Structures are given as structure tokens and as C-alpha cells.
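$ run holo --ligand "NBP" --emit C-alpha cells
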Amino acid sequence: PTAIIGVVGLAVMGSNLARNLASREGNTVAVYNRSFEKTEALLAEHPEAGFVAAKDYTEFAASLARPRTAIIMVKAGRPTDAVIDQLVQVFEPGDIIIDGGNALFTDTIRREKAVRETGINFVGAGISGGEEGALNGPSIMPGGSAEAWESMGPILKSIAAVADGEPCVTHVGTDGAGHFVKMIHNGIEYADMQLIAEAYDLLRRVGGFTPAEIADIFAEWNTGELESYLIEITAEVLRQVDAATGSPLVDVILDQAGAKGTGAWTVQSALDLGVPVSGIAEAVFARSLSSAPAQRAAAQSLPASTETWSVDDRDAFVEDVRRALYASKIIAYSQGFDAIVAGAAEYNWDIKKGEIAKIWRAGCIIRAQFLNRITEAYADDPELVALVTAPYFADAVGSALPSWRRIVAGAALAGIPTPAFASSLSYYDGLRADRLPAALVQGQRDFFGAHTYKRVDREGTFHTLWSGDRSEIEATDTH
Ligand code: NBP
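-- output --
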């Protein structure tokens, strides 16, 4: 056996990852795909990689040096279980199975538990960066045991993206921690994309800029604190002209955004954990709304009652939008990291938040310089709750506030939907409020369900006898 590592599943992601692995000095990589044609095609296209091709799992296992390490890159869900079942048959205790697909973290927890009983290590590893990242260096978020990390860490470091000289991979935590963090990454990605889209919409509809002009604005923003891969590609998409019609491509793309589910998973998990990831949720819902043609058609005749938003100083308007975008982005990341903190507490993962921000600086879709500020914030205070309260972010949001309020208020009057901008501002105002109307909600709950309440002025749990004489009693149990 000569191969140092193997890849199962040779579609876009798997073949690119296999080529990345094979491109490192001295690496021999074993490859297997369910349908052999894909394996043959990869071998024919990339003879330079020196792949060791296997026709079945027995051959695959025999070609791997011990302890065997295999990365699964197949469709998430049942296909992943099918491949694991096969690998477990031919692998031995001490070997390592890495699932690099987009698995739901609870599936990873289940699989890790089952595979561990055989003595084989199972690692759920989130891999971000699409096909380009897989080939040239992705951001890798592995979970699993510390022993597995010890053994496979060096090879993952050798293929990961590099940010400021450091590989974008770290042992996130045990069992499903890696896939959980990858899920949050994708949720933040949804919010980031939606916020950028809202900024574009305002610049276009209120600022009156053309897509090409907005591309220039984004390119300019990309030299400052908003510098990120998503801002960079947004400029490129906006600059693209459709060959068939001569129109900006963005104008001929159907305005219905699809989704593969990881954003929805983030929101579902956050709902379970009780963490308000409102920016991410609005981004997921905005895609759902866009993809509801029947409802949108039926609503075309609804009244608008909008006010005209005329902009006198276009430069000042652009700056307002930029600041609103930056503040909302800080909220999205703050909420995402709060979800990581809550997930870590719920599932007993020792997740180093600053390390997560570090491994997102390159390779992945949300890569941005801004992540350095997050790492610094957690270095200053590892127990930090609500990232937005860290001095750097509090200052950044504070100076953006007047712009942010003008944009959200203006959009509401003009009838331009800004769900992520607006909900992020509402979240911010809710978070900093010294008193919330939750007191009234708690009163309502006590009225109809005897759910009790606590008082601001003394210890204990109380209930008002709403259907009796409306006196207050001290309640013994809470509902
Ligand atoms: P796909 O998600 O399209 O999966 C295709 C692969 O799964 C093929 O190799 C196929 O084999 C294999 N497969 C299936 Br389908 N059912 C199987 C089964 N029962 N047993 C064995 N193999 C089976 O590939 P992808 O787009 O390269 O993505 C791979 C993974 O990486 C996914 O989990 C994805 O979510 C994740 N991911 C993708 C991206 C991206 O940008 N595309 C980014 C990050 C993560 P066959 O050739 O025989 O049909």
C-alpha cells in the first residue's frame, strides 16, 4: 500500500480535493467513485496527479498505508451513510474516516458514535470554498477526536488555504463540532449575501446608479473595512454584461434565489438553542419570499403608499449605505458567534472562537480581513458574549448608527424591502434597551396560562389571580 490518503466520491468537490492532495510533494492519493467512469475520467484528465485508482472498496483499502485515512466527498445524507457502511467493512481500528461533505451536525454526532464502536475514528469535517477552494486550498473545520486530529492534522494543514502564513484549519471540537461550525459559516454567508444585495438594491433604486457604477462602488468598498471575497465577486457579477441581450447580466437573471438548506439548518438549530440569529433568518426568508412566484404575483396589486426618496448628495448616500451594510454585517457575525457559543455549551464542545475566525480568513466564502478583528476581540476576552459589545465592534456600530437609521427609515418610507438591514438594527436596539416589552408578554402569559413571572423588586416567582380577585400570590413551581 502506497497511498497516504484516499478520496471517495469524485464529483466536483472530491476530484478537486484529490488533485489538491496529490499536488503536495510526495503524496500518493487513492481514489474511488461508485461509478467507475468518473474515476477513469479523472485519471485520463490528470495523469500528472499519479492517482491510485480503486474499482471497489477492498482495493481502495488495500492501496492505503496504515493508519488508513479516507475523505468522503459524496452527496450529504443517505449516500454518506452508504459509503461509511462500506468503509467500515474494509477499514481497521485506528483508521480514520473523514466526511468532508455538508452533513447536518446531528448526523455527524450519530455517525461518530456508531463508527467509534468499531475502533475506527470518524471525523466530520466542514470544507468551505467551493470547487476552487477544494483545488487550491479550502478552509477546513474538522471535528472528531483529538487522536484523529493528531494523525490527520498535518495533511489537512498541507492542503488548507493560508492566511497570514497560517493554515486555515484547526481542530474545532469533538464529534459534530466541525460540521456545526461549517453550518454557522454558511448561515453567516447567507446573511452577508443578503445584506450586500440590499445595499445594491438601495444604490440602484434610490441612488440611481447603474450596475456597472455599483460594481465600481463595491470595488472601492473592497479596499476598506468591508474588504471580503463576497464584496469582490459582487462587483464582478454586477459588471458582467449578457452577451445575448447586451443588458447587465443581473437584469436577465430570474430574481428567485435558491438554497441548499444549510442556511435553514442554521436557523433551525438557533431556534432550538434559543439564539436570535435574526439577520441569518431574514436572509433565508428573503430567498423563500423571492422563490414564491404565486404569492408575489398575487401581491402585485397591493397598495404601496410610498414616499419618494430623493437623494441630494449621492456620495453621502453611498456612504450611508456602506455604513449600514457594515453595521448589519457586524450584527450577523455577532449573532453567528453567539450561536457557536450556545452550540458549544449544549453539545460540550471546547470551541475556541478566535481560532474559528482565524480559519475563516482565507479559503472559505465569507473570507475577509474583518475576521482578524473577531480573533482579536476573543483574544482580549475569551468569555465575550455578543461580539457586538467588544470595544472595536461597539465603536464601529456606534459610528455607523446615524447612517444605519437613515437607511432603514428611508427604505421603510420608500417601500424598499431591507429585511436584513432592518432586523439587524431592531436586534441592536433590542439588545441595548434597558427595558423591553417582554414584561408585557410575560404578563400575558401569566394571564392565560398561569406561566408566572419574576419581579424587578424582590426574589421569587409570582402569579396574579387573574380570574379571581387579581391579588398576587407567590408561586411555588414554574411552568
Ligand atoms: P454531489 O453532492 O453532487 O455528490 C455526487 C457524488 O456522490 C458522486 O461521486 C456520486 O457517485 C456520489 N454518490 C451518490 Br450521489 N450516492 C452515492 C452512494 N449511494 N454511494 C456512493 N457514492 C454516492 O458532489 P459535490 O458537489 O462534489 O459535493 C460533495 C460534497 O461536498 C457534498 O456533501 C456537498 O454538500 C459538499 N460541498 C459542496 C460544495 C460545492 O461548492 N459544491 C462546497 C462545500 C461542500 P456517482 O458518480 O456514482 O453518482
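-- notes --
Residues 314-347 form the longest helix (34 residues).
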